[in-house]
Design goal:
Chain lengths: ~425, ~180
């Protein structure tokens, strides 16, 4: 029998052949909780009669959404979680490391062939490391913490086959906005999206993370890229694992196969208030922006910031707008710092913050007022996502964000 | 292959029904995301009653003020998309809503709802239900009635039914001594 990569992961975990559509109680290799969904998950764990987590070594805890604590309530939530970590022997990265998804992958907490759950919808990003990873709610997480297993309906897979060579200043974010537009906000509900094809094979880990991160924006249960040389190279020093083959059989049963050629792909911008509204940048060029945010688990890596710096060149950011730049993790921050880019950004007029979710979730700082427009490299532009429901959020790549931050209006990065 | 079998939804006594006698339908559109249900800035709150006060704040401010215990939310496609925040179904519970009828649901919201005790009801004709309609749910017969018109609903997937039958995932988990994995 042929199988998709997702079916292979579940079959391997279960020790017998598991097919898409089946519901299994599968063991998990890792679980991630953060400061927003963690307190409820811990409460549920206790309500379920939990006393000891299934395996503290397999659980990762960190705070990223509201850090440093921006309210007494947030500080209280942090205290509650710290206490739990200490009591259970769970490693708590606390406020020190950055955005949960970036940190989970960086610390080798998700690896090829593993099943990882996170109490956050963008957990699907770990598919970039060849893991089956999915976002769950707090009650499911309470269950996972207690039992080390969870019910999964093994998803069918949509295979997105990507070919062609990106134009300069066009990349993974533009591709995923294009794919989201094609598949739609619920086109992948209950399904996994496998990103394949020559263009994906050539993409670096940063780009693969951007793709997998946004599978949820199509309703996807997981995004995944079959592990290859690039994946295994990345895993070195993070996990002691011998590389092995893991990929979908060419003749596996896919829910759909969709082909994309990126050679003619223009920079894309998702317009308010949905993610599947991507249009070529030319369609919205000239739109005034009040705030530009470059960062998040979607696009806060060194590669993203380096691209933004390249676009910036020796120019300055438009002083009439706010430019907020946030590396996704401590590691990414240090790389950016060592490359001299932090200084460059600060001198150009940006506000560079320490690693965290920042304005992306609209819960901490960087909120927009009624009537304001935010241009953001993050993953969601829902009404009110970054503050006022009378504000607007546009989504784009780091290159487009940087170009627009220079001019103060949405700008094609190929023209700067 | 997949067990496509579905079982009927648990029988609920009239007295314990999740929908009030004179329940009102609160109609929302397609792709209602969890940021709309409960904005990010309220996620520091974990108490359903407090969350309920901010349900749909900024999106539909009258909702939290006027919603009555046992009212029903009616959505279009992809209800509950976006963030995995369980605060969303908890805010609905806090606001007194225990049933959401929609054409389709986003996966995490659907599962969270069942886990915490909000019943997500798939109704292909949900779009035909008007805002403010007098609405009732007949789980036994498998339909919703809105302003006198009857619309069929889909049964809950079999494996989720087990969790509903147990009274939610917490109750289910309490009764599990040892959990065999990879059971189907």
């Amino acid at each position: 029998m042929t199988a998709t990569i997702v079916e292979k992961i579940f079959s391997q975990k279960c020790g017998s052949e598991v097919r898409a559509g089946e519901v299994v109680m599968a063991p998990i290799d890792g679980a991630m909780i953060h400061d927003i969904t963690g307190p409820l998950a811990i409460q549920k764990f206790y309500e379920m009669g939990g006393t000891q987590v299934f395996d503290p070594e397999r659980i990762i805890m960190l705070f990223d959404h509201q850090i440093p604590a921006d309210s007494i309530e947030a500080a209280n939530n942090h205290v509650y979680m710290r206490k739990f970590a200490a009591e259970q022997g769970i490693h708590n990265y606390d406020i020190n490391e950055g955005v949960c998804h970036q940190v989970t992958i960086e610390k080798g907490r998700a690896a090829p062939g593993e099943i990882v759950v996170g109490a956050d919808s963008h957990t699907c990003m770990y598919g970039a490391a060849g893991a089956f990873a999915t976002g769950i709610g707090s009650t499911d997480m309470g269950f996972a913490l207690k039992f080390g297993a969870l019910y999964f309906k093994v998803p069918e897979t949509i295979r997105a086959e990507v070919s062609g060579k990106f134009q300069k200043r066009v990349g993974a974010k533009d591709l995923i906005l294009r794919i989201a537009n094609d598949i739609g906000a619920d086109g992948a509900t209950y399904k996994a999206i496998e990103f394949a094809g020559k263009t994906v094979r050539k993409l670096d880990m940063a780009g693969r993370m951007t793709l997998c991160n946004m599978a949820i924006e199509m309703g996807g249960k997981a995004g995944i890229v079959a592990p290859d040389k690039i994946t295994w190279e990345y895993m070195k020093g993070r996990r002691k694992m011998k590389p092995f083959d893991l990929e979908s059989d060419e003749d596996a049963t896919f829910a759909e196969r969709r082909s994309y050629n990126v050679s003619d792909l223009e920079p894309q911008v998702a317009v308010p208030h949905n993610v599947d509204t991507g249009v070529p940048v030319s369609r919205v060029a000239g739109t005034h922006v009040d705030q530009v945010f470059i960062g998040s688990c979607t696009n806060g890596r060194f590669e993203d910031l380096a691209e933004a710096a390249e676009v910036l060149g020796r120019k300055k950011f438009n002083p009439k707008i706010r430019v907020i730049i946030i590396p996704a993790s401590r590691d990414e921050y240090l790389k950016t710092l060592k490359a001299g880019l932090i200084e460059k950004f600060v001198k150009a007029g940006a506000l560079v913050e320490a690693p965290c979710c920042g304005p992306c979730m609209g819960g901490a700082f960087g909120l927009i007022a009624p009537g304001e427009v935010s241009l953001s490299t993050s993953n969601r532009n829902f009404k009110g996502r970054q503050g006022s429901t009378d504000g607007k959020v546009y989504l784009c790549s780091p290159a487009t964000a940087a170009a627009s931050a220079i001019t103060g209006e949405i700008t094609d990065p190929r023209e700067v | 292959m997949a067990a496509k079998k579905t079982v009927p939804v648990r029988k609920v006594k009239e007295s314990e029904g999740p929908v009030a006698k004179n329940a009102r339908a609160w109609k929302f559109g397609d792709d209602i995301d969890t940021d709309a249900i409960i904005p990010g800035r309220f996620l520091i709150i974990n108490n359903p009653d407090e969350l309920g006060k901010h349900a749909f704040e900024g999106t539909r401010d009258e909702f939290a003020k006027k919603v009555q215990q046992g009212d029903v939310i009616v959505g279009g496609r992809n209800f509950g998309c976006g963030s995995s925040r369980e605060h969303a179904p908890l805010a609905l519970i806090g606001a007194g809503v225990k049933v959401v009828v929609a054409r389709s649901f986003a996966r995490i919201f659907f599962r969270n709802s069942i886990n915490v005790g909000v019943l997500p009801v798939v109704c292909p004709d949900a779009d035909k239900i008007a805002d403010g309609a007098k609405i009732g749910l007949n789980i036994k017969e498998g339909n919703v009635v809105a302003d006198g018109k009857t619309y069929a609903i889909e049964p809950v997937p079999a494996f989720m039914q087990g969790i509903i039958d147990a009274g939610g995932l917490v109750e289910y988990a309490k009764n599990v001594k040892e959990l065999p994995t990879c059971t189907r």
